[in-house]
Amino acid sequence: MKEKYISYYEGLQLRRNKDVVLYPIWFLARRLILSLAIVTFDQTVWWQLAIKTALVATSTIIVGQIEPFDAPQLNNQEFFNEVMIMIVLYHIFCFTPFVSDTETQYQVGYSIIFFVCLHFYVNFHLIYKMLYRDMKL
Description:
Elements: H1 6-9, H2 22-40, H3 45-66, H4 72-92, H5 102-136
């Protein structure tokens, strides 16, 4: 059983903080809630966005308060990922009927592209940095 579920708690600081168990539970619950929200509220995008916003905010709070990973850089990376998801999610609100000006939506589209590219760049940079360090060792 330990080998089967190791991917859910690998790298977590289970010995120092027992609240860390909340992180993998929330990881799975978040996906379940999101899938239920998409299926249940398929005609109302506002509920989907509200639920997604609540899920991301809760994840950000959990990562910021518990700091579930052993390595501080992994905690920072996870926090950065949650913040970037929140930024992109706030941009998506501009593609609803709330903003009817197509020129504004066009400009917001470029802003989303910038933040997604920034997110990719930072994550790939961190991955290559860790790979280089591991290869060097």
